[in-house]
Write the structure tokens for this entry.
Amino acid sequence: MEKEKIILGIDPGTSIMGYGIISVQRNKINLENFDILNLKNIDNHALKLKGIFEKTLEIIEQYKPDELAVEAPFYGKNVQSMLKLGRAQGVAMAAALFKEIPIFEYSPKKIKQSITGSGNATKEQVALMLKNLLKFQEIPKHLGATDGLAVAVCHHFQSNTFNASGKYTGWKSFIKENEDRVSK
């Protein structure tokens, strides 16, 4: 019997950190949890980073993930924002490294493409596709939660790109094998 794999996905942020946990067995994805860590009320940047580290360790202790997938910071117009985002990502990665969990990094475009088929999809489109795929009832108020979940699902899809044992070769093969789970 194939061992269950647990994947923690993190969408780093210094105001809102989104995270999602999935378990995968025989290529069946099960939603374990997804939520946000809200850091908006903390003014001190170092204390925000401490909160990210502690929450990431707490999630790791609770769910015992086999792998961490994290969204890579992207370059925007504000260099300061990118630096803060990189710190948030680094702290989450440090927590995983502390627990000796392998880390995988994906660009925002790669994550959106893996989930929706388009690298230019909106957060709402990603959330809706995940809702259909994983059969959860409501899209959360903060889309950071579905963003974190998207990172975990993207990692699962990207790590299953070969077909030797019935695994998917990409998004199209997943749809073909799971037509009943995908809205048209």
